[in-house]
Amino acid sequence: MWSLLFNILLILLSVLVLWGGAVWIVESAARIARRLGLSDLVIGLTVVAIGTSSPEFAVTVGAALKGQGDISVGNVIGSNIFNLGFILGGVAMVRAIATSRTMVMRDGGVLIAITLLLLLFFLDLHIARWEGMILLALLVLYIGSLLYFREAIEDAPPGEFRWYEVPRLLIGLALVIGGGHFMVEAAVALARMVGISEWAIGVTIVAAGTSAPEFATSLVAVLRGRHGISAGNLIGSDIFNLLGVLGLAATIRPMTVDPSVYSSLWMLAGMVALVVIFLMRTGWSLSRWEGALLVLINLIRWVLDFRS
């Protein structure tokens, strides 16, 4: 009984920590971007995206070091599908997300190209060290191009830049990562108490928990009108996961995967294409009903996963 109450309390506390950390991230990131002459979108695609992808980084690289290729690659692909379906769709259901032609055509196009490249790399169900190094090189090239070809700065965020914005951003990232970790630990403990299988816990609670930083940050950003940070965080996280996380894991240790991973990669390609189509057809924004459809598609995928 006490264990049940403790885990419920820990989940509630983790949610509060996640929310508070996300608020600090959004506010500080917007002011840092303004100070550096960068747009919300660029800061969302880089600093915020890389920071909120830390849980995926830890899980994927750790699995690669242990020779668990299916877990390593599956975590990246599953997390990206979750980001585009449940998180992007869920945030859009709360409030329609406004993006820009630049983000959709440039960053959406980059994400599609990377996914197609990975389909080519995994044709033999293996990713070699040299392929991982190519992915890392593409990440450096992408980030460099974002900083070099910077777009016009959006509206200035409320408040002036202060010296503590950088440490506050780092503390905010630590809070959302820590909050997500403890939320997963407590949720897994509760699931085991009610008899849910380890596999079901992995594809639901753990998948959702590692994406909790992206969800909290994107939701807070869109509620505060920082759409560039919200959308940039999710698209940037997906790009960083595929190029940086998967690239580093393959460079450390080449991996062979199960054929089911390849089918999941096709699912990711379809999700990316669908999101880009949605954004193009509605004036570079994602409406509530489109967000609901993305969530529904992912729910169906989860049901099929359980049945299989």
Commentary on this structure:
Helix 1 (2-36) packs antiparallel against helix 2, helix 4 runs antiparallel to helix 12 and helix 9 (212-223) packs antiparallel against helix 10. The chain contains 12 helices and 4 strands. The model has no long low-confidence stretch (mean pLDDT 85). The chain has a single domain, classed as NCX, central ion-binding region (A middle domain of Talin 1). 48% of the residues are buried. By secondary structure, it is mainly α. The strands form 2 sheets. The chain has a two-stranded antiparallel sheet with strand order 1-4. Helix content is 81%, strand content 3%. It has helices spanning 2-36, 40-52, 54-65, 69-94, 101-121, 129-148, 165-193, 198-210, 212-223, 227-252, 259-281, 288-307; strands spanning 97-98, 126-127, 255-256, 285-286. The two termini are 34 Å apart.
